[in-house]
């Protein structure tokens, strides 16, 4: 279940209470008259089964509360209550299969921002990938997979395409294109410094590495990307932990970017081009699969071109 808090103007309080009382998945209803300070108003709280939230949020937004008040959601890890159990039983469908589109928009909107933290993680991941290739260390490449933050904007791109939120699409594309360009340029610069300092030479590119799969484009590259994109979006929309999924997804992207930067500096434009192609194929495959998963789960696109800003502002 999720905890719902609504701050609304007093004239909307009765309408909000009726919506919650009529919602089969809502329970633990609380009214705090005049408790809101900024924004001012009454505060209504309830615990709502995940599968009942989407329609409820639509009706609350129809009252204009998202513009004149506030609607917030928090995950509930444990609820010891017969009333909560009955609400979950009464709510239609299964919680794991329910998509709360406002929550999804807020999460992907925040994770798609091009900021210093995102660039920092992506650059470190590319550097780790390059070091993993130089030292032929699979463990180091796995470290790059863990650090890579790129699934955030990839997921945001898919959400934006399905819901036709072009502002989100533009933001996600900027994070992906500029982010990878910046990370690869920095990686190439530091690789050049390491090469000039004699830490390694061109011979590392002519040895059979366990990591050679990074630049070898083939049908399995696309298959892995499709599976990764589907798994990642299922994890994101079902509120399951995305930690291990993120590792799986990063194996098809960050190592290819790091390898491309390394190969270019060491005079291997062919391998650099193959690795860059691998990166593009994998990014496209992840977005394609994630978009298909969303389309299958999205029975109605109720946020199409509604002009409202993203939930994260």
Describe this structure in words.
- Helix content is 60%, strand content 11%.
- By secondary structure, it is of the alpha+beta class.
- The protein contains 13 helices and four strands.
- α5 (101-111) crosses α8 (151-163), α6 (116-135) runs antiparallel to α7 (138-147) and α8 packs across α13.
- Strands 2-3-1-4 form a four-stranded antiparallel β-sheet.
Structural class: alpha+beta
Number of helices: 13
- Outline the low-pLDDT stretches: 300-313
SSE order in H/E notation? EHEEHHEHHHHHHHHHH
Helix content: 55-70%
Oligomer: single chain
Overall mean pLDDT: 86
Strand order of the largest sheet: 2-3-1-4
Strand count, sense and barrel status of the largest sheet are:
4 strands, antiparallel
Q: What is the strand tally? A: 4
* Gap from first CA to last CA: 25 Å
Task: Determine the strand fraction and express it as a percent band.
Answer: 5-15%
Radius of gyration: 23 Å
Coarse shape = elongated
Topology of this protein?
Elements: E1 2-8, H1 13-22, E2 26-37, E3 40-48, H2 50-62, H3 65-68, E4 70-75, H4 82-90, H5 101-111, H6 116-135, H7 138-147, H8 151-163, H9 166-196, H10 219-237, H11 243-250, H12 254-265, H13 269-297
Antiparallel strand pairs: 1-3, 1-4, 2-3
Helix pairs in contact: 5-8, 6-7, 6-9, 6-12, 7-11, 8-9, 8-13, 9-12, 10-11, 10-13, 12-13
């Amino acid at each position: 279940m999720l905890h719902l808090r609504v701050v609304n103007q007093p004239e909307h309080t009765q309408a909000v209470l009726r919506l919650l009382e009529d919602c089969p998945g809502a329970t633990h209803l609380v009214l705090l008259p005049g408790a809101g300070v900024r924004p001012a108003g009454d505060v209504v709280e309830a615990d709502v089964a995940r599968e009942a939230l989407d329609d409820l949020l639509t009706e609350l937004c129809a009252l204009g509360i998202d513009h004149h008040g506030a609607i917030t959601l928090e995950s509930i890890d444990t609820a010891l209550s017969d009333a909560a159990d009955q609400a979950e039983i009464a709510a239609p469908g299964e919680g794991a299969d329910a998509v709360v589109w406002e929550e999804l928009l807020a999460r992907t909107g925040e994770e798609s921002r091009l900021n210093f933290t995102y660039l920092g993680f992506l650059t470190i991941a590319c550097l780790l990938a390059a070091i993993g290739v130089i030292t032929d260390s699979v463990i180091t490449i796995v470290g790059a997979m863990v650090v890579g933050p790129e699934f955030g904007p990839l997921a945001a791109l898919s959400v934006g395409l399905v819901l036709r939120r072009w502002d989100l699409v533009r933001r996600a594309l900027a994070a992906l294109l500029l982010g990878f360009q910046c990370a690869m340029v920095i990686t190439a610069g530091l690789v050049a410094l390491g090469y000039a300092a004699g830490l390694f030479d061109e011979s590392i590119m002519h040895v059979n590495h366990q990591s050679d799969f990074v630049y070898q484009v083939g049908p399995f590259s696309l298959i892995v990307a499709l599976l990764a994109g589907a798994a990642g979006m299922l994890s994101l929309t079902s509120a399951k932990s995305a930690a291990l999924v993120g590792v799986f997804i990063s194996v098809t992207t960050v190592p290819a970017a790091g390898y491309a930067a390394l190969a270019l500096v060491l005079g291997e434009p062919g391998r650099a081009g193959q690795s860059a192609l691998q990166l593009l194929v994998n990014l496209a495959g992840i977005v394609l699969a994630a978009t298909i998963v969303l389309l299958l789960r999205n029975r109605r696109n109720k946020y199409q071109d509604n002009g409202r800003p993203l939930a994260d502002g």
